[in-house]
Design goal:
Elements: H1 2-18, H2 24-48, H3 52-78, H4 89-99, H5 103-131, H6 134-160
Helix pairs in contact: 2-3, 2-4, 2-5, 3-6, 5-6
Amino acid sequence: MKYKTLLTLVLTPLAATAALSAPPQTFLRQAALSDNSEIQIGALAQARGSSSAAREAGRMLQADHRASQQAAAPLMARYRVRPPAGVLPEARVEMRRLQALRGRAFDREVATFNIAAHQRAIAMFQAQARSGDRDTAAFARNQLPVLRHHLQMARDLLRASR
């Protein structure tokens, strides 16, 4: 009984902070890394997807995340955040994993990764939209419908690739 109480006391503050927004610079940097990651994963899906749905998903990811980068550019300039050149560590690992896959296995893996990546992005953007500063909250709110659409697209692709 004491263990459960102690665990609750330790985990409750952690859960509460998970829903808080990030400082504008941190949020913008993470959003940019996420965009970079999705553009690169999208390029792989477009080039190597076994189905037309996977290739179209790749094209959409690239186009929409480039549009997100363009929308974020004025904010990044305002907050003096240099656009990062790299990708998220999990995207780097995923790209190596995808290099070894072909066919439906490739499509399934792309879909599975994008489901998880977009769930994380949606959570981050929702938190920013709720409690971020005015500018980054507005940016986050504007991007959420696109992220939700990508999540649904990834779920549909996973269903189709089974």
